[in-house]
Write a sequence for this structure.
């Protein structure tokens, strides 16, 4: 006899079967909606000319549909979100950055060629002829423009347009007629013209003589002519300068007959130009190599200083005769608990050349006031001091754990043989902790190699390197140098920044491989 469900009177196995069926249909509906949403994104990106992102979401939507629709791939459903996240947030940005490094992508070469052409052909200039001041007059629900020449010289100095609707900002044409004076009534206030500015800019007024008037200012209409005219061969004719602009797909610009580039341009493939520029252009190679060397020195000295301070403090905290170890341990780890950006900003104030506590103490004791932010060597010294303060608690924790794992019998045997603290340090402690500590030191080196937050908040890369064609500072690391090229340079050279970022990635990959080798992990 079946046990029935109290609410529906159905056998329990049938109730469970119905619930599972509804669950499957609900899951399929959710997957279907997600696939449709991804397809919508594909179409949206494709229609806006972003075919790379369209391809990304197409692959993502296709893989989502395949994995969740086939029973043979059921085991992959659990790992699919992680793999998709890895692809979208790690692999795609990496591949996209490498792709940009082979282009001239920058603030001057940002749009597609079609959008550049459209932007140029939308430009106009004021032709010879008098400008007209205008006023708006209400006529029922429509508006008429009364225009009066700024330099009266004929019969058509006062014009009145046909009634128009200013709620529509599409391009439209309206005829005008010569009049003796303004129409009856009071003109609309200035704010009405401001509110209808988009519609007025799209308005084309035809004078009785056939001249076209366009909005040339907030209170003026004037004879305006399209500056560029499209030719059948794809070139543009500049009607103002009387010259032909030819599209050059090697550099991504329209160029004049004299070779002058007309901005904006469009991205094109430049091969290894950005990479060769790093090592062949003297104005870039010099600052790059200086920053490259400083990056390695900064990361290496930071690891050395933090390890030395952390190891010494960890050894002292293991001293049996030291009282209050818990208090000292808590105080020494406090810098690790405070967010780094807060500590950096506090140190920035303390090292202020005029009002900082550091210079006040040095001036009171020794009569000196170092220029921490303007002298390159002092700025680098300040960075190392601050970074050592921020990083030593991490090394302290590592060394404490490793020292505590050393058997006490070894130190007792050393004492029997007459070994002292130096012997214990050199023969027992360091040899036993250096091997497990090496992969962690390499990881710390890689972290400080890309320590962008410290540079950005403390010095901003300053003081600058004189003679550099790119924004480069003596305290810049490669990562902050890349950021400044991409977002602070006047030209925002994303292609060059991507090339440097690719080199940084290769260096970090190399350090990671070394780290894995030292950790005895198969690569």
């Amino acid at each position: 006899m079946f046990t029935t469900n109290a609410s529906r009177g159905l056998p329990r196995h049938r109730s469970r079967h119905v619930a599972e069926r509804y669950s499957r249909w609900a899951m399929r509906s959710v997957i279907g909606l997600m696939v449709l949403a991804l397809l919508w994104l594909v179409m949206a990106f494709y229609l806006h000319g972003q075919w790379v992102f369209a391809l990304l979401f197409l692959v993502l939507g296709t893989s989502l549909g395949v994995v969740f629709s086939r029973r043979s791939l059921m085991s992959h459903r659990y790992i699919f979100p992680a793999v998709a996240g890895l692809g979208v947030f790690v692999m795609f940005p990496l591949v996209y950055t490498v792709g940009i490094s082979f282009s001239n992508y920058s603030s001057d070469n940002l749009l597609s060629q079609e959008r550049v052409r459209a932007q140029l052909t939308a430009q106009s200039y004021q032709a010879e002829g008098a400008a007209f001041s205008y006023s708006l007059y209400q006529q029922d629900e429509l508006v008429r423009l009364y225009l009066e020449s700024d330099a009266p010289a004929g019969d058509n100095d006062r014009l009145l347009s046909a009634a128009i609707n200013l709620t529509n900002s599409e391009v439209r044409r309206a005829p005008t007629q010569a009049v003796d004076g303004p129409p009856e009534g009071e003109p609309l206030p200035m704010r009405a013209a401001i509110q209808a500015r988009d519609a007025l800019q799209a308005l084309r007024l035809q004078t009785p003589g056939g001249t076209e008037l366009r909005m040339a200012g907030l209170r003026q209409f004037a004879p305006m002519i399209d500056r560029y005219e499209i030719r059948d061969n794809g070139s543009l004719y500049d009607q103002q300068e009387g010259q032909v602009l030819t599209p050059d797909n090697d550099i991504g610009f329209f160029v004049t007959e004299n070779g002058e580039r007309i901005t904006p341009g469009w991205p094109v493939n430049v091969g290894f130009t950005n990479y060769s520029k790093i090592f062949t252009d003297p104005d870039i190679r010099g600052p790059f190599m200086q920053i490259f060397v400083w990056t390695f020195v900064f990361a290496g000295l930071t690891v050395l200083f933090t390890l030395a301070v952390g190891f010494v403090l960890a050894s002292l905290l293991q001293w049996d005769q030291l009282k209050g170890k818990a208090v000292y341990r808590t105080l020494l780890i406090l810098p690790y608990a405070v967010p780094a950006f807060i500590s950096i900003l506090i140190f920035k104030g303390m090292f202020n050349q005029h009002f900082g506590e550091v210079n006040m103490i040095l001036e009171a004791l020794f009569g000196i006031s170092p220029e921490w932010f303007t002298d390159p060597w002092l700025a680098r010294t300040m960075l190392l001091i601050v970074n050592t303060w921020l990083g030593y608690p991490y090394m302290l924790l590592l060394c404490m754990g490793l020292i505590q794992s050393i058997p006490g019998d070894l130190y007792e045997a050393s004492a029997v043989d007459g070994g002292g603290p130096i012997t214990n340090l050199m023969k027992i402690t360091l040899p036993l902790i250096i091997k497990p500590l090496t992969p962690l030191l390499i990881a710390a080196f890689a972290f400080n190699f890309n320590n962008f937050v410290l540079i950005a908040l403390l010095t901003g890369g300053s003081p600058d390197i004189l003679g550099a064609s790119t924004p480069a500072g003596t305290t810049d690391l490669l990562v902050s140098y890349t950021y400044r090229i991409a977002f602070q340079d006047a030209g925002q050279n994303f292609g060059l920044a991507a090339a440097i970022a690719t080199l940084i990635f290769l260096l970090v990959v190399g350090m990671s491989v070394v780290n894995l080798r030292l950790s005895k992990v198969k690569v």
Q: What stands out?
A: Residues 102 and 317 are 54 Å apart (CA to CA). The domain at 124-226 is CATH 2.40.430.10 (Periplasmic binding protein-like II). The chain has a mean pLDDT of 87. The chain is about 55% helix and 10% strand.
